[in-house]
Amino acid sequence: MATNITVMEGRLQRLKGREPRTQSIATRFTMTEETMLLRSAASQGRNLREWARESLLAAAQQQRPDDGAATFAEVQALRLLLINTLEPLLRGEKMTPEQFKDMLRYVKTNKRKAAADMLASYAEGASEQP
Predict the structure, then answer these.
(1) Domain match, 115 and 85 both
(2) Most CB within 10 Å of its CB: which of 3, 20, 66, 80?
(3) What is the mean predicted confidence (pLDDT) over 19-32?
């Protein structure tokens, strides 16, 4: 009986100082998935529910770029590379390996800005001009 009272006091103490939890999320797993999740939780010394809660919150807090935005930035990187390397080559100029490395650095640095500028021009309804 004393053990039950101690457990209840411990639970009540944890509730003090934090916002109450009001939402429960349920899902079903296969036996294989459950085993995998239980192992992961046990490896961190947590029970499954506590581990799952922390894992979900950590995943939700990660700052990951939108896949579409990342893909668009890479397309703009290719566009920058082509425009800035083909134009001098078409004029008959040669590009040294060092110039090409500098161009790659430039593209890596400016691809996100180029993507943002392109999206802004689409939002404004501007047409691309040569």
Answers:
(1) yes
(2) 80
(3) 89
The pair of three-digit structure tokens given for residue 4, joined into one six-digit string: 């039950």
Q: Which range marks the domain in which residue 71 is found?
A: 67-124
Torsion (CA) 104, 108, 113, 115 in degrees, nearest 10: 90
CA-to-CA distance for 61 and 104, rounded, in angstroms? 32
* Residue 23 counted as domain residue: no
Quote the CA–CA distance of 89 and 12 in Å, as a whole number.
Answer: 74
Residues 28-83 pLDDT 10s: 999 999 999 999 999 999 999 999 999 888 888 876 656 788 899 999 999 999 99
Do 73 and 120 lie in one domain? The reply is yes
pTM: 0.45
Structural domains counted in the chain: 2
Whether residue 16 is contained in a domain is answered as no
With respect to residue 72, please indicate whether it lies within any of the assigned structural domains: yes
Sign of CA dihedral 106, 111, 114, 116: negative
What DSSP state is assigned to residue 22?
-
